[in-house]
Amino acid sequence: MTAATAAKVIGVVGAGTMGAGIAQLAAQAAGADTLLFDPVDGATDAAMQRIADALERGVGRGRWSADEAGAARARLRAAPVIKDLAACDLVIEAAPERLDVKHELMARLAEVTPAVLASNTSSIPITAIAAGCPAPERVVGMHFFNPAPMMRLVEVIAGQRTSPARWRSRGPPARRWASA
C-alpha cells in the first residue's frame, strides 16, 4: 500500500453512537469493506440497523442515492468475533473512555491483526493507550467528530512511539474521507 492509497478493509470496534457512525463513514464515504464488532450481545445488530436506517433517511433527504446507500450497506458486515478483524488494514476502536479497557482491547487487536490500530479517544493521550499494546508503533489516534457520517473531519494523532515509516507506508486513510 502506498501513501496515496486508502485502507481497503476497515474494522470498527465498538457499536455505540461513534462506532456506528465511523462504520457508516468507512463503508459509505471511504468505500471500504467494513467490519463492525462489539462484545456486548445485541450491540452490533442494533448498530447495523441504526446505520441502515440512517442510510435510508439520507436517501429520503436527497443526500445520496438509493444505489449509493445500497452499496454502502453491501460493504458493511457484522463481525461476530474479534478474530474476524484479522484481514483489516486499519482497525478503529470506539470503546468507552477507560484506559484499562483500551489497553486490553489494543493488546487483543495486536494479537489478531497486523493492521494499523487507531483509537477514537477524545480524552486519553495516544501514548498512554499505546503503552498497553505490544506493538505501540502501530497505534495512532483518529478522533472523529460527531456525527461522523455528516462531519467528515478526523484529527489524526501520532503517539510518541508511533512509527512514521509504518504510517507513511500504509498511508493515512482519513485523507480520502476528509475530502469526500
Automatic annotation (TrEMBL):
SUPFAM superfamilies: NAD(P)-binding Rossmann-fold domains
Any Pfam family: 3HCDH_N
Ranges annotated as spanning the membrane: none
Residue ranges annotated for the 3-hydroxyacyl-CoA dehydrogenase NAD binding domain, each copy included: 10-165
Family: Belongs to the 3-hydroxyacyl-CoA dehydrogenase family.
Name this polypeptide is given: 3-hydroxyacyl-CoA dehydrogenase NAD-binding domain-containing protein
Species the sequence originates in: Svornostia abyssi
